[in-house]
Amino acid sequence: MKSRKDLDKLNKNLAKVTLTGKISSLSVAKTLFEFMENTQVEFSILKDKLTDALLEEDIKRATSLIKGRTQVVIDILIRNLFERTADISFLATDYDIIELLTAQTITQEQKDFMEDRLQEYVLKYSVYDEIILLNTQGTVIMNLDKNNRITHSKDMIIAQTIESKESFCEIYRDSDLQQNREKSLIFTSKIKSHSGSVVGVLCLCFKIEDEMSKIFDKLEFNDSTYALLDSNGQVLISNHKTNKISLDKYKEDLYFDKTSLCSIAQGSSYQGYKGEGWNAFSSISYQKAFEVPQNPLDFDLKKYETTSLVSDKLQTIKIHSEDITEDLMDVALNGEIIASKTRTYSLNPILENLRIITQGIHKVIQKSSDEVFNILFRANLEELSHKASLCIEIMDRNLYERANDARWWALETRFRQELESSETNKANLTSILEYINTLYTVYTNIFIFDKNQKIIAVSNKNEQRVIGTVADGGAYSYAISNRDSQKYFVTPFEKTALYSNKETYIYTASITSLSRGDALGGIGAVFDSKVEFKAILEDVLTPAQQGLFCDEHGVVISTYNIDISIGDIFEPCLNHLPKELNSKKSTIISIDEDEYLMGICSSDSYREYKKEDGYSNLVYAVILMKI
User: Fold this and answer.
1) What pLDDT shows up at residue 404?
2) DSSP at 561
3) How does pLDDT run across 411-440, given as a tens digit for each residue?
4) Residues of the chain with pLDDT under 50
5) Could you give the CA distance from residue 55 to residue 49 in angstroms, rounded to a whole number?
6) Could you give the 3-state DSSP secondary structure of residue 449?
7) Superfamily for the 412-527 domain
8) 293 DSSP assignment
């Protein structure tokens, strides 16, 4: 550490000058050099405190950085897998799947229809690479992956699923269900007939390696090691080849080994889902962890040295360093006066040396103090921009699921049959919608509209007032003229009567004819944006932090712990919103004469969502902390 070397050198030089002064002028300036000796001792103590503070803040920054990213790995995965539990539970009750498994004789036509239907499913829920339908004896009725030549399974998960009282089971291990895989992450659920008897088992095979690769790639420091561990420390998936990691080392969440800074994070439950008890691991070399960023902070930190962000300890060191510099300058000045009065010219070179050393001390202390404050502020700014990135990542992943839901539900055979019928059974539509909404609680209402955009059925009994009204807007008109089952349409984030005159997104998709393929109407899913977006911010931020989502014009979409209304413009961020996707920025801003650290991240995409599907919606997470 260069600052420490400079301080050590100056301290030695100061000690030499003090000793030389005492020897050369005992009779003339004894008291002066005794004072100087005491000051040199104080400087020696200060030097250690300053270098310790520098090291402490650097360690805090590095450890916060790696701990935050390690936690992201497991938290993002747990959230994703929670969504899969809803998928398996719902798909196991699919009308067409039940019809297939309860048929006395399964025809090739039925198999082809089901294969097309399940292909539609994985086109939308692209996190799966295989779907398997089995009867209760383990005989495979059909599966999607042509490379997975399976006709029967002896895996105990089949019997466990049938006997389980839970809505799903989950395994991650080798299985004959995917013989071409070393290990598979498989969600299973029993399939019941319309009368309630178990007739088979549904298996959804999750692309865990692919998903972990996407999570790892989003993290900074791609040359670092990231890994997913089981509860025994066995490496399940890693971006670098590694074997077992001893969890005994990680009784705390941080560990320093010979070459690297390491961290482990346990997965916490999300809405009651705990997963398999997995952990995330990260390791970064000391060189990378403590690397000094080349780009300096673009604001004057001296303005903020007395803010709440700077501890009393650091402020005391700063004041003490200034006092020592002043004391040494006073020694030089008083020495000159004594030398002049007593004509002791032998003091002059000593005093000149002292003056040079004092100037050096002042510069190095100032530089060291600036470095400490720079590390401190940079660490906090990095944390805020990192949290902004996490919030926007969770948001994109959440809305990816919403786009999938609308498109899949629109393919519900009974919806298509009812809308094509000359006498639509609206009670039947309502019953199906109500069931869907009990499983997918992120929506306040799910509704069906006909080809005239008139709402004919709703899932929420409290929203029956909208039946008969016209769903007006581009998303609905696009839906009734669309034939592509991969397309979905989203309303702008605006007030709507369908969400109690509050702002939200509504996801729509076309319900098409089974025979002709033209649109018969559509389905609309009213996302509970006020609750769901706020929950994302609450989960990520601390009570001392504030946050919001906004669009590219600064229009607020959701808030946490900040006094601004949804739909208003958050003007302090307008000049700082990056134009590029997945771009982070951090700075210091003033709001009503108070100073805030601010971290921002723009949205990107997740899998096909906002990447290959034609939907564009630039959103930002803005995270603040008052200083």
Assistant:
1) 97
2) S
3) 999 999 999 998 999 999 999 999 999 999
4) none
5) 10
6) strand
7) PAS domain (3.30.450.20)
8) P
Burial 287-306 (b: 16+ CB within 10 A, else e): eebbeeeeeeeeeebeebee
For tokens 């000051």, what's the residue? 39
C-alpha 310/C-alpha 57 separation (Å) is 11
What φ, ψ does residue 477 adopt, rounded to 5°?
Answer: -70, -35
**Fold identical between 412-527 and 531-626?**
yes
Q: Residue 258 has which token pair?
A: 């010979």
Contact criterion met (CB below 8 Å) for 251 and 316 = no
Sign of the alpha-carbon dihedral angle for 217, 219, 222, 225? negative
Helices (H), 207-346: 208-218, 286-289, 312-342
Domain ranges of the chain: 2-61+307-380, 412-527, 531-626
Name the CATH architecture for the domain at 531-626. 2-Layer Sandwich (3.30)
The percent helix, strand, coil of the chain (3-state, each to 5) is 45, 25, 30
For residue range 119-128, what is the model confidence (pLDDT) as tens digits? 999 999 999 9
Ranges of H-type helices in 198-307: 208-218, 286-289
Taking the mean position of all CA atoms in its chain, how far away is CA 606?
A: 12
Residue carrying structure tokens 């002059």:
348
